[in-house]
Write the structure tokens for this entry.
Amino acid sequence: MTQVVDETLAAVPRGLLIGSDWVSTDATFEVTDPARGEVLAQVADAGVAEALDAVVAAHDAFGGWAATAPRARAEVLRRAYEIMSAELEQCARLIVLENGKAWNDAMGEAAYAAEFFRWFSEEASRVSGDFRLAPSGDKTIIVDHQPMGVAYMITPWNFPAAMATRKLAPALAAGCTAVLKPAAETPLTALWVAEVLRRAGAPSGVVNVITTSQPGPVSESVLADRRTATLSFTGSTFVGKLLLEQTARRALPSSMELGGNAPLLVLQGADVEEAVEGAVLAKMRNGGSACTAANRFYVHESLATEFTNAFERALGALKIGSGLDPAHDLGALVSVKERDKVLDLVHKAEEEGGAASPATGAPAEGAFLSPYVVRGVTHGQTLTREEIFGPVAPIITVQSTDEAVEMANDTEYGLISYVFAPNAGEGIRVARRMDTGMVAINRGVASDPAAPFGGMKESGLGREGGFAGIHEFLETKYMAVDL
Ligand code: NAD
């Protein structure tokens, strides 16, 4: 395979960040560009020994960082926000190169990722406790919060910058130190983010990064090590459950952002134009490779034909091609393997009686895929059960709001839902009935660094962002004091 030559890429470290050093390893693995199928870089391939070195470095740095004044920790994060904001295009370029997504999606992700540094720089000095007389009057109750220690973070390939900063920013704000393990498909953006934190003044050992092609044994050894204090994982429900079995052995606190199977409801009386606009965003942001991507569309029978035709036209107008060209709305999927998994789901839907039509054409070379609308899908069929993670939209016609809510909740997942209702009041009433941690009402995007992100049921444990995010990295300590 040919090797891509690129200035932004050339500046990214390729080693492991352990303490203050970028460490190279004998073994390396390839990172490839899914749009061109070319090799972008060879990065260090950590084994168990290097991973444990990173834990030791993080552990050694913990005491000093925890004792650093919250304001001083905040200033490191604020500087990281400023550096990242000034270099959004470099970050976006790396995201496009290794993940394949469209330029506007990558720029949106880079800005969203930087915002976590800003939000948690503000939160670092706002952690409050409690001081009160016990109801019995026999003592005073003091409640304080303290950083947990070394936080192990595992991130997926679909948001290589934002999933890293959504963990690093609150952990560092809380006074924890970090060992970050990015997905093997997209390690370069995470290495770049770590370098931003170093440039912002994060002391040696506060941020460590291990890239590896063997996430299983490496993570198992890190989680078994008594110096590791907490796990923050974002990825599939399948891997999340495997990790929970491991963290259970040590009763290790675990924050889990897992898979989704988001329903999008278009209720009787909804504004179809608004619903189509929201549906395109909810389905196509990140090319459909998002845990928040609308996975199944329950549309009231009175609007079904109008909505489906308009939605298909809107998808058909999207331009598909290299994410490096800002004129393209839709880039490549992360790999040909991932594209073929999505296509298999389309074929399965056809076998089950669905009518799948590509909304437009896609380049034949590279991991590109046209968006598909699949009509005639019945609730319970494969596309309503599996997380599609690509640009495929199954439409299910419903006869009432009750039926839509019942079908929407009939899943083991509970991350997010989308409700298009005739007015906000009706939207909120229906949102209260959804078994999901987040609901977007009459809009196609909900994520915000200042809001709690997370799921119910098998979509996860805990929340990231908002006021809750920093508490995933803090222990609550109660002190009883005599009067
Ligand atoms: P994945 O679960 O395959 O991988 C996620 C991470 O886990 C990667 O870093 C991977 O290297 C690592 N991993 C894989 N096997 C492991 C093992 N045995 N032990 C330890 N670590 C292991 O997920 P993916 O394919 O990278 O990402 C897609 C999934 O992530 C989807 O299910 C999506 O919904 C989910 N996701 C969830 C959120 C959220 O916030 N809820 C956000 C983004 C993605």
